[in-house]
Specification:
The complex is a heterodimer of chains A (310) and B (99).
Chain A lengths: L5 H5 L7 H15 L9 H15 L2 H10 L35 H7 L17 E7 L1 H6 L2 E11 L5 E11 L9 E4 L15 E7 L6 E3 L2 E8 L1 H6 L1 E5 L6 E5 L8 E4 L12 E7 L7 H13 L11
Parallel strand pairs in A: 1-5, 7-11
Antiparallel strand pairs in A: 2-3, 4-5, 6-7, 8-9, 10-11
Helix pairs in contact in A: 2-3
Chain B lengths: L3 E3 L2 E2 L2 E2 L1 H7 L4 H9 L15 E2 H17 L3 H26 L1
Antiparallel strand pairs in B: 3-4
The chains are: A alpha+beta (310), B mainly alpha (99).
């Protein structure tokens, strides 16, 4: 188990007053909130900040944590709580019901006596929410996807352990970003027995190097050669479903949007694909290519800067 | 552990009551979000409201912002508008940087 320096996580001194702790927490919570901060490390940072605040905002927990002390620098073998740690402290859970599990350090030290969050004692179980990130291709095909959840479980000796639970989810064909998949009765069953609630998965798409999904529509940038744009004609365009022929109108402009109806994400109606043209010049490396461009320069009357007074 | 096979359905739409249960919120808070234009249900009266996927995802986001940062309905409406604007700008910026 790794020791966690909660003061360092919040960027405050161990002598900080309660007000100072709250201010530091609020500032960092705003900064790293996963709905606001889109960077990849934001979610983990937000969780760390919440875990630190969960301990330091509560005078009892903070006192217990301070009493643990920092492990000596360079100590080997990970952190172990001192003997007798379990005695004397009663912690009440104050976190939101749907809080995710925190680090092993937190779970071991502060949740031992309590019950894990998010589970009712008996009767009708709570619903659970999780996120499911898919590739756009998965939504085209309707693939099976395996989801791994980390869920606090109470072991036979009463301690809380994090258990991994894998669920195979059949991704419905044509699902779009922001839609929810419902898995009836797949939430964790209540501790004292009873009916488990539903598990809801919010779908998002992993960033794709070529496509960007907006609802059922897909957007992409399509490179074309200068002569393809000038003369028009059919070009082969990639789609998640394979290549299709796209007709380019003569005298197409860079930035022009072309719509391919019904080739977006499947559904009723199916989405469209929007291709934004980008004219790309070939590199002139051969005598032949140089000759052709020189001929165009001589024979094609064209001033691309006419519109800006050039 | 072996993956358990689970039956799955896509949520098409939710009523007001279902949405409240879905994001652990009360009726008045959801109605306030509708009043601020954060959520756009289909249907003329509250009894007939149906919330579709975009609104469901936004309601969850709104609930998180409210719970984690203490933002009220007006603040959420503003935050979501500005975030949409920011994301669009970041996207356009990225497309320029690629070229």
């Amino acid at each position: 188990m790794k020791y966690r320096d909660y003061y360092k996580i919040l960027g405050i001194a161990p002598t900080a007053e309660a007000d100072e702790i709250k201010r530091a927490y609020r500032k960092l919570a705003r900064k790293y909130h996963p709905d606001i901060n889109a960077t990849s490390e934001a979610e983990a940072k937000f969780k760390d900040v919440n875990e630190a605040y969960e301990v330091l905002k509560d005078p009892e927990r903070r006192a217990a944590y301070d009493q643990l002390g920092k492990p000596e620098a360079g100590a080997q073998g990970g952190f172990r709580p001192p003997p007798g740690w379990e005695g004397g402290f009663e912690f009440s859970s104050s976190s939101p019901a749907d809080a995710e599990s925190f680090s092993d350090f937190f779970e071991t030290l502060f949740r031992r006596q309590g019950q894990p969050f998010g589970r009712a004692e008996s009767g009708q179980g709570r619903d659970q929410h999780a996120r499911l990130q898919l590739d756009i291709e998965d939504a085209y095909r309707g693939d099976a996807s395996v989801l791994t959840l980390r869920i606090p479980q109470v072991a036979a000796d009463g301690t809380v352990q994090l258990q991994e639970r894998s669920i195979a989810v059949q991704v419905p064909k044509g699902i779009t970003e922001g839609q929810h998949i419902r898995l009836p009765g797949q939430a964790m069953p209540p501790l004292g027995g009873g009916t488990p609630g539903d598990l809801f998965l919010e779908v998002s798409f992993a960033p794709h190097p070529v496509y960007r999904a907006v609802g059922r529509d897909l957007h992409l940038e399509l490179p074309v050669a200068p002569w393809e744009a000038a003369l028009g004609g059919k070009v082969m365009m990639p789609t998640p479903d394979g290549k299709v022929a796209l007709t380019i109108p003569a005298n197409a402009r860079s930035g022009q949007k072309l719509r391919l109806k019904g080739k977006g994400l499947p559904g009723t109606p199916a989405g469209d694909i929007f291709a934004t043209l980008r004219i790309v010049n070939p590199k002139v490396t051969t005598e032949e290519a140089r000759r052709v461009f020189e001929q165009m320069a001589r024979e094609v009357p064209f001033n691309p800067r006419a519109g800006i007074g050039g | 552990m072996k993956p358990a096979k689970a039956k799955s359905t896509v949520i098409v739409s939710l009523t007001l009551e279902e949405l409240c249960r879905f994001c652990h919120a009360d009726r008045s808070w959801v109605i306030e979000l509708v009043d601020h234009g954060v959520l756009e249900p289909e249907g003329a009266s509250i009894q007939n409201w149906r919330f579709h996927s975009v609104s469901i995802a936004r309601a969850k986001k709104a609930r998180r912002l409210n719970r984690d940062l203490g933002v009220n309905a007006a603040g959420i409406a503003l935050v979501l508008d500005l975030l949409a604007e920011r994301d669009e700008m970041l996207r356009r910026l990225a497309s320029f940087e690629e070229v």
